[in-house]
Amino acid sequence: MNPIQAPTLEMNFLLQQVFDAGNVWQKLPAIAELLDLETASAILEEGSRFCSEQIQPLNQRGDAQGVGFDGIQVTTPAGYPEVFRQYAAGGWVGLCGEPEFGGMGMPKMLGVLLDEMGYSASNAFTLYGALTAGAALCIHAHGSEALKALYLPKLYSGEWAGAMDMTEPQAGSDLRNIATRAEPQADGSYRINGSKMFITGGDHDLTSNVIHLVLAKIQGSDGISLFLVPKFKVNAAGDIGDANGVTVGAIEHKMGLKGSATCVMNYDDAEGYLIGRANRGLICMFTMMNYERLSIGIQGLGSAQCAYQMATAYAKERLQGLAAGGSPTGAKADPLVVHGDVRRMLMSIRALTEAGRALAMMTGMQLDGAKYAATESEKQQASKFAALLTPVAKAFLSDRGFDACVTAQQVFGGHGYISETGIEQLVRDTRIAQIYEGTNGIQAIDFLGRKLAGDNLATVTEFFGLLQQQQQSCAPIFVKEQQQLQQLQQQFLDVIAAVNQQKHDNPALINAVAVDALDAFGYLLYGHFWLMMADRALKATELPAAFVSGKQQLCHYYFAKQLPKVAMHLAAVAAGDDTVMQPVSDWF
Amino acid sequence: MNPIQAPTLEMNFLLQQVFDAGNVWQKLPAIAELLDLETASAILEEGSRFCSEQIQPLNQRGDAQGVGFDGIQVTTPAGYPEVFRQYAAGGWVGLCGEPEFGGMGMPKMLGVLLDEMGYSASNAFTLYGALTAGAALCIHAHGSEALKALYLPKLYSGEWAGAMDMTEPQAGSDLRNIATRAEPQADGSYRINGSKMFITGGDHDLTSNVIHLVLAKIQGSDGISLFLVPKFKVNAAGDIGDANGVTVGAIEHKMGLKGSATCVMNYDDAEGYLIGRANRGLICMFTMMNYERLSIGIQGLGSAQCAYQMATAYAKERLQGLAAGGSPTGAKADPLVVHGDVRRMLMSIRALTEAGRALAMMTGMQLDGAKYAATESEKQQASKFAALLTPVAKAFLSDRGFDACVTAQQVFGGHGYISETGIEQLVRDTRIAQIYEGTNGIQAIDFLGRKLAGDNLATVTEFFGLLQQQQQSCAPIFVKEQQQLQQLQQQFLDVIAAVNQQKHDNPALINAVAVDALDAFGYLLYGHFWLMMADRALKATELPAAFVSGKQQLCHYYFAKQLPKVAMHLAAVAAGDDTVMQPVSDWF
């Protein structure tokens, strides 16, 4: 497999021309002093180099070797520990962390691009750092000053890693029924007992400690609380002490992601420390989960980008068949890339991946606004938009990411099914992104039920207003695309308004049509991004001509071939839930 | 994993009510004397039992163990040889074979149902028999009387197996460039030298001989010829003699289908016998390939049926979350099947799988007509329809089959990613069906380029006429569905007619829009099947009430939620190829 090169030209284009990040960052006081476009670009280059040179070479053999478990300790594939230490030393784990505790304080709009590069290079490897950064985010948002001071510096530096311990055999998507218990101790700590499953990075040999964020119920309460439970106890000076009653029961054998340890965790009188308020653990955990949801969306995006590069390289190199109308070179066989159907596949991956990158960045930008904006009202608006976009980023990026991998595999023909090529691993690794951190169905229900119907479409209407404003800044040649988007936005609002009106009379409706609603929104939003990318490329002065014309072609492709999906998904939403809910359960 | 039960009630319903197989078979002289509906039903029950009791138990451990190769001989997973012998002894390999040579002479419309059961039970195991039956079909159609007499009885009885040796490293989708050579010998045989790859069932320990159908070029000619090349030479009495210079170079490590051997084959002065005329090998091989294409479509169908049963069982058993509006039983958690989004997934798998079965059967029925019809004109019409439907059956059934497996995996949530559950194996095993026997892109180009544009839409127009005739026999309550289908059929013809008109001026067009054309046709045809199934269930007198109302619900579901895809795919066809063909190759 050739080394994957992160598309830094594309990334810089989005930062500079499409999102005008220089100006955006200028308005965020904490960012303005740290970062400008030039520095951002240098960080991208540095990250790209690390990912291609250090992380990617681990990926295929990590899949072949998998993680090991001797009954006590989980070991990662050969090379993982060394490269993780370099990764941590490079500051990549703490990239968006708090400078006060040793983080680099970078905005998430930049962070998402580094996440993408990591996942492009290796899904399995990159998860370890992503979970660590997410755990740090949660501890920073909800932990006591003492916990922050003790744990954040070690997490940002990657000396220790983080894990998110939620699922139990009887409690997956629905966490109300967890059985792990926390007993209050005289010293203010808690004694944790119970068991969890599907814990990504629950144990490994990358770091000297693993910091678990564990959901449990405090003795005598049915509310859910969040606890920090280290694998090894830590004294006040930050030194590692005794084992803490946190052990691995088993590791799972999975379809893919074989370099990532998925553990059954057991807590036997483990010492834990409450994070945030008692019985408010789900709210605290959601801070981490929302972060991870975006990250997992980006897992799909990173895989899609990798899939595109792999498929494109193969399509240019593999000679098979003649171009329609005869070989342009008179050869016995032309490269696959001359064939319309192969191009159709490559265009679909590319158009959806580039728009997907814009979605990830826009979500990151809203998270930055929610955290760093100068005024409270700006923070609130950004926070609402981040909440609106997070389930879309998680579900739509991972769904389209999986599609991209499967499509790229198709470009390889029979070779795509052979392990050696590497593309089938990408399909297997990426598949989980549609499932974990809340299945994509759960994301869609959150999106339609809470984010749209939850405020009677106020946020989405406001969001569409923002998009329209941006669309109106486009050059006159795009008037047709603008009109088409505005009509579809209105159509979307009309269909969703009808759902909203019925939500009380028909409580089953939202669950039944949510996935189509999210898909309609996703394809519509990508239409917006394609219009913006085409327009901004045209207006830019220093871009290569092929880059600019490529954006026009992709925009036309997207409007012609992908945007019709909006109406199709809206038709499915408008058709309601009768045909789905009528059969009795036994009939299935 | 629970044993999968073949849906024999559904199968009998399709045979009896939808396709009126009793009458159809009465009109085919060779079939009428062998088979009635009652016998067919008994065969289905017997096949179902064998598949659940014997084949399915091999499936999961076959994946874990995989095939072995010691440098000389390929070994299949434990249990395969014993069960294959029973399978062969039961007459299943020769089910549709010629009675003259020991086959059972059953129609393909019945055979497809047995194929489905086999693939539902195990993709990997069932392939061995399918290839053997396909090789026999080809030898019967094109081989000399001597070859038929020597080889067919041993193939139908499953004492020997068949393989199809086409692909070479430089010649996959495009076979013109194969390099394997055949040198004529004084005794009329040929000496074969060369190498092939991706040979499914190229070697194994299920049978005492493997009969390869090998494409090669006769010395001095650039035409392609087809040769029968046995692993072991066979004397005139049918006894196995010396090894024949056919050896395995390697086996491939694949994403799935690990119980099926995928071999590199080497021919070193191997003795081969010409099948059919010299330089006409591709036409002969297409007899086998068309058979295998239907079979591979059915691989997708069988997987989809298995996926439905697995997902449904899990959705009824797994308790998670509460029904919208509160648990109907007051439980702490309801089964997944109460949730609208889970039902959406199950309905989509079921609706597409049941219509898919009808497509497989209709294709089988046309193949039967082409072979057994009483008049030449009936044979010709059936032959044209079989040619029209074969690429659709291969591509649409395997694409929808893969979708079904992925969707079913989603129903399992996190458990779907774990090997233990078995559903991830189904995803991996089924993926290849979209690729081998001609990628689904190749199928689409065959469909649009040859089968539609090849006769300026004459066959498809005639075929739609047949469908309309059947639709008009439906009860008046279905008038809306009839009208909708007829409008869509007209729309399909209009859009394809425009493509047909441009095909000479723009030779790249067909390749670029073929997949969307095939998908539009597939979703439209499934609409037809749903109308027919709903109508015929209503008119039947002896079906359970829940069965009848289920067909109405699935029909309504299909028209509401799936049929809108026809317009979406037609929009993509109508948008032409400009946006796909314009970028220069280097830009990708």
Written account of the structure:
- Chains A, B: Residues 279-444 form the Acyl-CoA dehydrogenase/oxidase C-terminal domain.
- Chains A, B: Pfam families: Acyl-CoA_dh_1, Acyl-CoA_dh_C, Acyl-CoA_dh_M, Acyl-CoA_dh_N.
- The structure is a homodimer of 588-residue chains.
- In chain A, 57% of the residues lie in helices and 12% in strands.
- Chain A has helices at 8-18, 21-26, 29-32, 37-65, 80-89, 108-121, 123-142, 145-156, 281-317, 340-372, 376-411, 423-431, 440-452, 458-472, 479-502, 509-539, 545-562, 564-574, 578-581; strands spanning 68-69, 74-75, 160-165, 181-184, 190-200, 209-218, 225-230, 232-234, 240-243, 246-251, 262-275.
- Chain A has a 5-stranded mixed beta barrel. In chain A, strands 1-2 form a two-stranded antiparallel sheet.
- Chains A and B meet through helix 9, helix 10, helix 11, helix 12 and helix 13 of A and helix 9, helix 10, helix 11, helix 12 and helix 13 of B.
Provide key terms for this protein.
alpha+beta; 19 helices; Butyryl-CoA Dehydrogenase, subunit A, domain 2; flavoprotein (chains A, B); homodimer; FAD (chains A, B); Acyl-CoA dehydrogenase (chains A, B); two-stranded antiparallel sheet; AcylCo_DH-like_C (chains A, B); 588 residues; 3 domains; Butyryl-Coa Dehydrogenase, subunit A, domain 1; globular
Radius of gyration of chain A: 24 Å
Q: How are strands sequenced across the largest beta sheet of chain A? A: 4-5-11-7-6
Greatest interface: A-B, 100 and 98 residues
- Which architecture of the largest domain in chain A per CATH? Orthogonal Bundle
Number of domains of chain A: 3
Q: SSE order of chain A in H/E notation?
A: HHHHEEHHHHEEEEEEEEEHHHHHHHHHHH
Please, what is the average pLDDT of chain A? Answer: 97
| Total number of beta strands of chain A | 11
| CATH topology group of the largest domain in chain A | Butyryl-Coa Dehydrogenase, subunit A, domain 1
Oligomer: homodimer
Name the helicity range of chain A.
55-70%
Which of globular, elongated, flat, extended, rod-shaped describes the shape of chain A? Answer: globular
Helix/strand-derived category of chain A reads alpha+beta
Distance between the termini of chain A: 44 Å
Which regions of chain A have little confidence, pLDDT < 50, spanning 5+ residues? none
CATH superfamily of the largest domain in chain A: Acyl-CoA dehydrogenase/oxidase, N-terminal domain
